[in-house]
Amino acid sequence: MQTYIGGVSCPFICSKHLDHGVLLVGYGSAGYSPIHLKDKPYWIIKNSWGENCGENGYYKICRGSNVCGVDSLVSTVVALNTKSQ
Questions:
Q1: DSSP string covering 1-70, please?
Q2: What's domain 8-69's architecture?
Q3: In degrees rounded to 5, what are phi and psi of residue 53?
Q4: What count of Cα atoms within 13 Å lies in the side-chain half-sphere of residue 44?
Q5: What are the sequence ranges of the domains in the chain?
Q6: Annotated catalytic residue within 20, 36, 52, 81
Q7: What pTM was computed for the model?
Q8: What pLDDT digit, counting tens, does each position of 61-74 carry?
Q9: 52 included as an active-site residue
Q10: Is 17 one of the annotated active-site residues of the chain?
Q11: Where is the Peptidase C1A papain C-terminal domain (predicted)?
């Protein structure tokens, strides 16, 4: 996503080799995709590079087509109470 400049990103080529973490924070039903020249549904991603990258630290990526592994290369955290009882 280093080349992201705005709108909804729908790259044709994207590495599936993860090298940083991001956080999926929301979605939208129609945002303009410059590469497709039309509105596309999208995920809103908070990037890990700070507010100077993307749109104030966020970017939009096409939803529903597993672009860049966003639908399949997912991890999660489960917090457990480790306090002794």
A1: -TT--SSEE--S-------S--EEEEEEEEEEETTTTEEEEEEEEE-SS-TTSTBTTEEEEESSS-GGGT
A2: Beta Barrel (2.40)
A3: -105, 140
A4: 11
A5: 8-69
A6: 20
A7: 0.76
A8: 999 888 888 888 88
A9: no
A10: no
A11: 2-76
